[in-house]
Design brief:
The structure holds three protein chains of three kinds. Helix content of chain A is about 30%, strand content about 30%. Chain A has a nine-stranded mixed β-sheet, with helices on both faces. By secondary structure, chain A is α+β, with helices and mostly antiparallel strands. Chain A has one domain: 3-Layer(aba) Sandwich (Aminopeptidase), CATH 3.40.630. The longest helix of chain A has 24 residues. The radius of gyration of chain A is 17 Å and the shape is globular. Helices cover about 60% and strands about 0% of the residues of chain B. About 5% of the residues of chain B have low confidence. Classes of the chains: A alpha+beta, B mainly alpha, C mainly alpha. Chains A and C meet through loops of A and helix 2 of C. Chain C: This is Transcriptional regulator.
């Protein structure tokens, strides 16, 4: 399968200018390399800084411990799993992995297939919660847009679901996703779903 | 899949995002270490474990990243091991560190609190070691001595195994 | 959109009814039902190949039934 590339625009926080980027409908070797060589050292630098400042580990950013390489290897060649990546300024800015085997829980769409966001992560230098001004804004939104658009294209009418990181709960609520509460089977992360009706509004809105 | 939206459409999305955090997925979530260690942590020996890793690394003149490379472990886990007494390291990490530092894996597991130490000896040694070593940039002769003595404890008290 | 190819399917009336029924229940097109079926079948096959078992568990009785593949 060849990777399709959509041109997108991100916001350079320092200059307030738009930056052209690519939304790619795959996670490829180049992304895994970037994760290893660019993301990991950047994250380590942040963690060392937090440790030096004596910030308790409970307040450290989430997702400092994942391994994208392992995750993508596990689902290699399976139709049910898809990836997206955002590339700009020559480096991977965000990654998402999608599972197409899950079904809705929200009453109006219970049991109906949806796009489940298995993982989303934005590059450490774009993450405001790490205590430094983020470089690019819009990476996470672009990945979510891709998920909703994929759901639409697959005939799932834009339905998506995800288990939110606690620090991200507010954002999903703000874009109109339904909060279905803490999920005991997923370490009490809150489960959010976007309904078909909400998805159409999300994809439109020029 | 191809998306076609105007530049303004994307930039509006980016602006609306503000300083929101966006992340999802169970594997993205690192539970607070307090929750991770449900069993009572043997804190004094774990302090010694963190110091031990720190001193051994510095004695070899390695940065955290270099040690992570050499031992094939996650650099972020080393950071937590050295700095956070509540952290319960992965057994694989202990195994790799024991190999790298050439000390007994069983002892190191006990020190890290992953297995129960059934002798008070190691515990006392660990407390003594932790008390004698202070975390500073350069290894003092005091620290070197403490480290040497502790390495001996970690290496020699392992019952001889028949290969 | 990724290029797609068309194929003709020969289904019995009963199979066609099942497809229609799933399409309504799941709120997806008949093509989407078949594509979803293919994804699920392939995923299960990959897990079984790895040595995993496919089990159904009744939430109320906790009774387990193994679904055999291959």
């Amino acid at each position: 399968m060849t990777t399709e590339i959509s041109v997108i625009h991100l916001l350079d926080v320092a200059t307030g200018e738009g930056v052209e980027g690519e939304l790619r409908d795959a996670i490829e070797q180049a992304q895994l390399n970037d994760w290893q060589r660019e993301w990991q050292p950047a994250l380590l630098a942040v963690l060392q800084d937090l440790a030096r400042r004596g910030v308790p580990i409970g307040q450290w950013p989430q997702s400092w411990h994942w391994d994208w390489g392992k995750k993508t290897a596990r689902v290699q060649g399976l139709l049910a799993f898809r990836g997206f990546s955002v590339v700009a300024q020559g480096v991977t800015q965000g990654l998402a992995q999608i599972d197409l085997t899950k079904a809705g829980r929200e009453p109006s769409q219970a049991g109906k297939p949806l796009v489940y966001l298995d993982y989303i992560e934005v590059a450490p230098w774009n993450r405001p919660e790490l205590g430094r001004p983020p470089r690019l804004r819009g990476v996470g939104s672009a990945l979510l847009t891709a998920a909703v658009a994929l759901s639409d294209e697959e005939g799932f009418k834009g339905r998506i679901g995800l288990h939110s990181l606690p620090q991200a709960d507010a954002f999903y609520a703000r874009i109109g996703m339904t909060d279905l509460g803490q999920d005991a089977a997923y370490q009490n992360l809150r489960y959010f779903e976007m309904t078909a009706a909400r998805a159409q509004a999300f994809l439109g809105q020029e | 899949m191809k998306l076609e939206r105007s530049k303004d459409w994307w930039l509006n999305r980016a602006r609306r995002e503000g300083d929101a955090v966006i992340g999802a997925g169970l594997l993205a979530f690192d539970p607070a270490p307090e929750e991770r260690s449900a069993t009572a942590p043997a804190e004094d020996s774990r302090i010694a474990f963190g110091k031990f890793v720190n001193l051994m690394r510095r004695r070899r003149g390695l940065s955290m990243e270099q040690l992570a490379d050499a031992a094939e472990v996650d650099a972020s886990e080393l950071l937590v091991i050295e700095d956070d007494v509540h952290h319960r390291p992965e057994p694989r990490t202990i195994y790799r560190l024991a190999q790298t530092f050439e000390v007994s894996q069983r002892r190191l597991m006990q020190l890290a609190g992953l297995t129960a130490a059934n002798d008070v000896g190691l515990r006392q040694e660990a407390v003594r070691f932790a008390a004698r070593s202070e975390s500073v940039q350069k290894l003092t002769s005091e620290e070197s001595a403490a480290l040497e003595a502790f390495v001996a404890v970690l290496s020699e008290q392992e019952p001889k195994r028949v290969k | 959109m990724t290029a797609k190819r068309t194929m003709t399917l020969n289904l019995t009336d009963a199979e066609m009814r099942a497809l229609d029924d799933l399409s309504v229940r799941k709120d997806i097109t008949k093509t989407a039902v078949l594509r979803q079926a293919l994804r699920l079948y392939q995923t299960i096959e990959a897990r079984v190949e790895k040595g995993d078992k496919l089990l159904f568990e009744n939430d109320a009785t906790k009774e387990k039934a193994e679904l055999m593949f291959l």
